[in-house]
Design brief:
The protein is an all-alpha fold. The chain has one domain: Methane Monooxygenase Hydroxylase, Chain G, domain 1, CATH 1.20.58. It is built from four helices and no strands. The protein starts with a helix and ends in a 7-residue tail after the last helix. The model has no long low-confidence stretch (mean pLDDT 84).
Length: 122
């Protein structure tokens, strides 16, 4: 085998194996899965055991999405502090100061969002 084939062979085996597993699971589902007739009750939306209230196309406030995006933003940004904490001794004072700058930028962003009312629900 040449070096190119040796590199790509395991990837090809993985792709073929994945396709076989997916095809097998879909086939088993088609053979053994339930085949019931649709009814009005069966097609009805199910929400935690409660009967549906209102339409499915209700409007949400933009504040809901803004709060969710801010949560994701700050949550993901704080994940970047874990590698810094692990390598703190190797980074020394330079790494410590850089982490403080990073935290300060996050704090300024949080204060800005708070002052603009992005976190208020009223």
């Amino acid at each position: 085998m040449s070096s190119g084939v040796a590199v790509w062979f395991p990837i090809g085996v993985m792709i073929v194996g994945s396709a076989v597993v997916v095809g097998t699971m879909v086939s088993i589902n088609r053979l053994l899965g339930p085949r019931g007739r649709d009814s009005a009750v069966k097609s009805e939306a199910f929400e935690c055991g409660n009967p549906p209230s209102g339409g499915a196309w209700g409007r949400f406030s933009v504040r809901f999405y803004l709060t969710a995006i801010l949560f994701l933003l700050f949550d993901v940004e704080l994940v970047f502090l874990y590698p810094w904490a692990v390598a703190l001794r190797d980074l020394g004072m330079f790494g410590f100061v850089e982490a403080l700058v990073f935290i300060a930028v996050l704090a300024v962003g949080l204060i800005y969002a708070w002052r603009r009312g992005a976190l208020d629900w009223t």
